[in-house]
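Quick one: O-antigen ligase like membrane protein from Nocardioides scoriae, structure tokens please.
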Amino acid sequence: MTATVLAAPDALRRDTLRFVTVIYVGVVLLQRFSVPNQPVALLLPLAFVAAGWGLARGLLEVDDRRLLAWLAASGATALLIPFQSYVLDRELISFTSWGLFMASWLPFVLRLVDRRMATYLDVLRAVVRISVVLAAVCVVMVVSQYAGLAYHDWFADLVPAPLQLGGFVITYPISYDSPIYRANAWIGLEPSMVSLQLGLGLVAALLTGARLRSIALLLAGLVAATSGSGFAILVVALVVMLLSPVRTVLRRFLLPGVAVVLAGLASPQGQSIAGRLGTGSGVDPSLGLRAISPYSYLWPTWSTDLSLVLFGAGPGSSQRLVDRSGILGLLVPTPIKIFFDYGLLAGLVLAAFILVCFVGGPSRTLSLALLISLWTLQPGTTTMVVVIPVLLLVAWWSPRADSPALEDLYRRRRERRRRTGRRALRVPSGDGYADLTDALRRHP
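--- reply ---
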């Protein structure tokens, strides 16, 4: 543990909480903003500003392992570009795409100075509070439409066009010819992005033992967003939690959760979600456009040319080919972005770096949920609204400073209760907090 943590633990904990919370709020509020007249999210330069400020204030430090991994990935892919430009179709290669990729992941070479579990729990509670507000706005957005107030994109009216990030479907009806639009809280880049944020908030609420009304409101917000992204996060998280001692915290949420889910499924939004989850093939369904169609479209091009398999088609090539396909909504998942663009040789180095960013975080539940979402459903390599939550909830907390993973702490509590019959688990103050039971039960 660093001298800074030992010298002023309370002040550092408070400053770290404020620092991470402000960034997370910025991700929610600013996700639709772009760099003026550029197709680049404003969140990217703001991430660099935040990282620089954190370094200057002593809240962040360099992680040597991830720095070396980033240098290896950027070096391997950069050295490949001249060869690709000489041998392959230059029209498909974009040096800007490579720069954007590596810049988006450069903040991952840092880590927080205060990575104690107590501080992490504080951050999770802050995420819950932010997500509850976001869920409430989503519910208001849908209820207002049922009350007769038609959806209107106020953001597009109030924010100058050069500051609006394009290339995303801001929102659309819950079903064909329906007057009700999916909730994006008016500020969301897409309903799927808002759904992902609500899913993360719901997982954080379960891990910290939030109030039942917070859980219910977050579930209602997920239904209002009418997207499977948040539910995918939740399903993965529940599987991980059920396979670990943290499953004990789920008991009191079981009946209320089932009631809210059944009520949601009875709504038009819930029926739309259920219908979408049942379709994973074809060109039109959202799930197919994310998880199946990109592979079926690009696989014949990539697999039949050994040079493409080994060396890739060049940075940005997968996106350019997808854009030429004429298939509306077709996305480029992370595996395609890596291996189609950079091939197996450099792609494996790049993939290894990204995977390292998910290792050693405080919560296996959040790490695995975000990893699976990033690699299967989200165009997450340069979409900052997806990348930054990985930074704030996983990578910057790795390696863990003073304790095992959050899920393993429940095993400690259970073992101590078996030995002593006491419900409270006293943990030495040097571990970062004195009473785990109290820490886990404090509500946001």
